[in-house]
Amino acid sequence: MVLDGQKITIIGAGIAGLTAALVLSRQGAQVTVLEQADAISEVGAGLQISPNGVAVLRALGLGDDLAWRSQRARAVVLRGHRSGNEVVRLDLEQHAPELAFYFVHRADLITILADAARRAGIKVRLLQKVDRVDAESNPVVHLANGAHSQADLVIGADGLHSKARVALNGAAKPFFTGQVAWRAIVPNSVGLGPEAQLFMGPKRHLVAYPLRDGSRVNLVAVQERKAWADEGWHHSDDPDNLRAAFSMFGGAAAGLLQSVEEAGLWGLFRHPVAPVWHRGRVAILGDAAHPTLPFMAQGANMALEDAWVLGQCLSGKGSLEEGLSAYQTARRDRAEKVIGAANGNAWKYHLRQPLAWPAHQILKLGGQLAPQRMVSQFDWIYRYDVTKAAEAA
């Protein structure tokens, strides 16, 4: 096996980094993960893990852990913003019962992956802030404290501001989409069941779904506006600003918004997919390679897919370089297609009158006449099982 005894350094102990560590460790590699934080943790927020991501967690033996800590989604419900009236219900239990969609707290998924990494003997070094990466045949990770780390292979799973991506591609030039997003977790004061609720309004929409035992609700609220906001998930905002932006929303949305005590705000930027995913013995995956807007809820799922394919490609080739080349070939087209779908999805939820009413009527009619077709329109994303596809390849 190519990976037997190879020393691999992974930058970042998020979903991408920990999953890659687990996959590569199982292939015989000696894996060390560098994390800049003082603990393996994540900011509190919800994630949607769709069947394509679930397939990877199941292949790693973590499917039951996910199910235990999550809410399994029964449906996706699109609603009007003023009264919260139902426009169309996409019933997953009826029309796709074999597919598992989960709502999970990000911190819970990180815990699942981190616990598995500890059991596997993977080393996780905290307080390791990376300054730069030398992408050579013998790669070097330079730390902010002046120390450095060498390995047979360096993998950048360090997100939007990846040092490994910069080493391979230079600095990226993302552009502001004219949209910002708030997120918050609130008590389930309105009794939401295990369904994703999407409230559609003019130039804005709100997504809500339950977490853990159903007592909490994750909110993501997106607004089109000219005022720029910083990129990244760690910026706080006054909850009253969120409520003001969505003051015309009624029904359950209004009740949930009233419960917001802390809100994060971030600007939505469109990043190009990295032209180069590997050089020498340095590679990138997840958001470091292909940041995506949140409108298909595929960021975490694509990271899970990347990690699995990277491991399969590296273990199935004659050299690390050949494996890295096969990995980019296997992943790039799918990443671009999924990101394209996310880029084109938001406007559908932001229609203003007079376009909103007929559009909602078409959605309602589609739900009545062809519900199976509406549920299956993104089967190319959700039914793709990368663990089987990689084995076949």
Folded structure, characterized:
This protein is an alpha+beta fold. The chain has 14 helices and 20 strands. The chain has helices at 15-26, 51-59, 63-69, 92-95, 106-119, 163-169, 239-245, 251-258, 299-315, 320-343, 356-369, 371-375, 379-382, 386-392; strands at 7-11, 30-34, 46-49, 71-72, 75-80, 86-91, 102-105, 123-125, 130-134, 140-143, 148-150, 153-156, 175-187, 195-201, 204-211, 216-224, 236-237, 263-270, 278-279, 282-284. Helix 9 packs antiparallel against helix 10. The longest helix has 24 residues, at 320-343. The model has no long low-confidence stretch (mean pLDDT 91).
Key descriptive features of the protein:
393 residues, alpha+beta, eight-stranded mixed sheet, six-stranded mixed sheet, 20 strands
Concise account of the structure shown:
The chain has helices at residues 15-26, 51-59, 63-69, 92-95, 106-119, 163-169, 239-245, 251-258, 299-315, 320-343, 356-369, 371-375, 379-382, 386-392, and strands at residues 7-11, 30-34, 46-49, 71-72, 75-80, 86-91, 102-105, 123-125, 130-134, 140-143, 148-150, 153-156, 175-187, 195-201, 204-211, 216-224, 236-237, 263-270, 278-279, 282-284. The protein is of the alpha+beta class.
